[in-house]
Amino acid sequence: MRFVHELAKLDVYGLSDLIEKKLITVVSKILTSHYKRFMDNDIEMESFKVELDKIAPSAQFRSEENRIDAIRSLSVYKFKEQYMGVVSTFVRDKIIKHYLEWKIGDTRKAAVEAAFLLYAKKGKRVAMNQMTEILEKILNVGMSDPDEEVKKTVFNCLKKNLSAEEGFSEFLNVQSHFRKLFACLKDRSIIIQNITLEILCRLSHENPSDIVPFLKKTLYQHLRSLAKMEQSNFHEKKNILKLIRCIIQHGTSIIEAHTPAICRIMIAYLRDKQHAQVLSEYIFKTFQVLAEHLAFSTRPYVDDLSQFQLEAMQDKLNSKKRSIAVKSFIAVIRNCGFVILPYCKFPNLLPTIVYLVKGGIDTDGRLDLLKILGGLGAIDRFKFKVMSKVYEDYGDRGIQ
């Protein structure tokens, strides 16, 4: 399909229009099992729409793969403006109506992607009531489809359009859509919960009165669950930390007042060996995001956090944990103004970094460690030796 699109862009021998017409014809033929070539003679677009309306969608076609490719071509191929009315009408009347509930998951997934074509290509000219109806159907699929991949496609498309298309949030700012998105925060998939939460946080900037109270209630529930220091439900706590990171990134104002409570809970987890063993990587990632977005609120907990980060950096058995600790430490140094003092408070910090740079970590990790050295700032070598109580290298044992 990309090849066909590039070929049309080149407009070799003026065939661009012919390629697009043929493509629309073939797609409609595959999806409606209708063999009539009604565009061979350069028929007007209005006549084409009339012909499409006459086609019966109930007949079966030979190959499911052809059907999927035909639907996907509508969202992949960049049709010219003059054909978008035809394509959008076809998507609305045929694809959305008949293929969002198709028996094959890949076909439903392709239909979801094609459904977003209506807004992504036509922009604000889509009528509000038309788009509301379409989003209702798509969100119903996102709530109830048995195939998790189809549900992920729904919410990824929502997020993508929300990011790329100015004005798309207007179509989502509807009470009925909010209720469906709120329900999706209870989905069994943490990925879908995360994407839904990001969408709601973005929408909260435009409609705080309807969304912020619900997000705060959700945050309180997560904090209550996280505050329970039970030696169980580690999987649930990992998921809660992921969701809290999402709120920090996309709804900073919602979580800012609760940053001290979150930091205290996570430091308590790091002090508990069983919790630290399972959750330390997730806690370091959360502190990294906190330092990047709420550095002022994180600063009082830097001393305690750095001690655990340094211990993780010295862990020779867990390279992933070591790498995450390094990145988290870099974020804290950069954003919280934690320079020079770490050398004083943690005399073994510099030897640890030097050891890792010499080969105790992979190439990317070494680059991160060099960034740490740059971020920490310079300190007099002799003063560092004095603080570390190491005098032999200088041959001066008189300084105590």
Overview of this protein structure:
Among the domains are: 1-115, no CATH class; 135-203, no CATH class. The termini are far apart. It contains 24 helices and no strands. Helix 4 runs parallel beside helix 6 (105-115) and helix 22 runs antiparallel to helix 23 (363-376). It has helices spanning 2-10, 16-32, 45-54, 64-76, 81-99, 105-115, 117-122, 128-144, 148-164, 168-172, 175-184, 190-203, 208-227, 234-250, 252-255, 259-271, 273-293, 295-298, 302-313, 319-336, 341-345, 349-360, 363-376, 381-388. 74% of the residues lie in helices and 0% in strands. The chain has 400 residues and is mainly alpha-helical.
Comma- or semicolon-separated keywords:
74% helix; mainly alpha; 0% strand; disordered N terminus; 24 helices; 400 residues; elongated
What's the number of extended β-strand segments?
A: 0
SSE string: HHHHHHHHHHHHHHHHHHHHHHHH
Radius of gyration: 28 Å
Output mean pLDDT. Answer: 78
Treating each run of at least 4 consecutive H or I residues as one helix, how many helices?
24
Helix vs. strand class: mainly alpha
Indicate the proportion of strand residues. under 5%
Shape: elongated
- Give the low-pLDDT segments: 1-14, 34-45, 55-61, 390-400
**Distance, first to last CA:** 76 Å
Helix content: over 70%
Largest sheet: none
Task: Produce a short descriptive summary.
By secondary structure, the protein is mainly α. The protein has helices at 2-10, 16-32, 45-54, 64-76, 81-99, 105-115, 117-122, 128-144, 148-164, 168-172, 175-184, 190-203, 208-227, 234-250, 252-255, 259-271, 273-293, 295-298, 302-313, 319-336, 341-345, 349-360, 363-376, 381-388.
